[in-house]
Amino acid sequence: MNAFLALVRKDLTLYFSNRRALIITLAAPIVIAAFFGSLFGSSKAPTRVPIAVVDLDRSKISAQIIAGLSADTALIVQPLDHDAALEQVKRGKLRAVVILPENFGAQAGRALFRPGAKPEIAIHYDPSQAMVMPMVRGMLTQHVMKAVSQSVIGGNTTAMSDFRRDVSASKTVGNEEKRDLMSMFDSIERVQKRTADTSTGQATTPAFDAPFTTLATEVTSGKERKYNSYAHSFAGMSVQFIMFMGIDIGVGLLLMRRLGLWKRLRAAPVTKALLLGSTVASSTLIAILLMLGIFAAGMAFFGVRVEGSIAGFLGVIVCFAMLTSSFGLFLAAVGNNPEATRGLAIFATLLMVMLGGAWVPSFIFPEWLQTLSLFVPTRWAIDGLAAMTWRGLDFEAALAPMAVLVASSAALFAVALWRFKWDE
C-alpha cells in the first residue's frame, strides 16, 4: 500500500508542477462553455439580419414598407438596385433581397377585396442561411399589411371609389356579396371621416388576408446544381483537423529537440533557415494531400462539387497548408516543452476553429464577433473554400483569402525563425 500511495503521489506532483499546462487545461473548457453560452443565451439580443430592398414601385405604400422594415430591430436594411443586391447575396454579404414590383401599392390595395391574382414580391436569399427566410417573410407580411391597410382605411378615398367601381362592374361577384361589400365600404368611409375630423384619431388595421404572394429563389452560381450543406461542413472539418496536424508538427519538433537531435544537426553544414524551411515544405505537402483526400471523400459520397474556380480551390488549399505548417513551426519555436505546448496549441486551435465558423456558420455570431473573426485566418480559409465550392465564384474571389493566408504564414515563419532555440 505504501508503494501504491507513493506512485500516486508522484503522478499528482508531476501533473500539478506544470502550472502552464494546468491553467490551459482549466481555461479551455471554461472559455468554450462561455462562448456557446453567450452565443445561444436567451438574454442576448438576436443578431440583426442584413437584407436589401429593391423598390421598383416607388409609391407611398412601398416607401412606408421600407421604412417599417428599416425600423425593425431584427433587420439591417439597405436600399440597392436589382443587380447590386443580387451580387451581394451571391457573395454572402446579405442574407436576402426583397423586390417590390411596379404598381405594387395599387394592386395590393385592390387585392384586399378582390379575388384572383395578387402582386408578387420576389425574395432572393442565400441558400446556406435559409433559416432566415421564414423570419424575413413574416416581417415583410407584417409591414406590408400595416402599410396597405392604413392606406386603404386611413383616408385613401380614391382607392375606395375604385373598389366600389370594380365590385359594381364585376360579373363574378354575386348580388348578395356586392351588397355586403358596399356596406363594408360605407363603414370604412365613416372611419375615414372620423379619422380626418380628429387630430389624434388613427385608423385601425383589420386582419385581412395577405394582399400578396412571395417567390423565394436561391442565389448561387447560376448552375442547375442545388446548394449542398456538406460543402460547408467539409470545409470546416478539414480546416479543423489539418490544424490539429500542425500541433503534431510542433510537438514532434519539441520532442526531437528534447532527444538532442537538433544538437547533432548543428554539426552538419545546415543553416537554421534551411532546416526549418524544409520542415515547412514537407508538412505543407502532407497537409495538401490530406485536404485533397478529405474533399475527395466529400465529392464521392456526399455530392460536394467545386462549382467555382478549380485553380482558386487548389490555391486556397495550398495557402492554408502553408499556414498549418508555419503554425506548427511557430509552436515549436515559442514552446518550452511538449506537454505545455500541446495544451496551449489545442486551446488556440479550438478558438481559431470556432471563430472561423467551422462548427457553426459565422453569420449567427453577434455583429462584434463577426468583425473580430475577420482577423482570424481560419475564417478566410473557410470562406475561400465556400466561395470556390457551392457559391461558384470565380478565381478573383479566392485572391483575398489566399493573400491573408500567405501573409499569416509568412508572419508565423518569421517569428519561428527568430525565436527558435536549439536547446530546451
Classify the beta-strand content into a percent band: 5-15%
Q: Tell me the span between the first and last alpha carbons.
A: 37 Å
Output the number of helix runs: 16
Radius of gyration: 31 Å
H and E order: HHEHEHEHEHHHEHHHHHHHH
Helix fraction, binned, reads 55-70%
Contiguous low-pLDDT stretches (5 residues minimum) are 201-208
Strands, total number: 5
Summarize the main sheet: 5 strands, mixed
Major β-sheet strand ordering: 2-1-3-4-5
Query: How is the quaternary structure best described?
Result: single chain
The global form is elongated
Provide an overview of this structure:
This protein has 424 residues and is of the alpha/beta class. 65% of the residues lie in helices and 7% in strands. Strands 2-1-3-4-5 form a 5-stranded mixed β-sheet, sandwiched between helices. Helix 3 links the parallel strand 1 and strand 2. The longest helix is centred in the middle third of the chain and has 30 residues. The two termini are 37 Å apart.
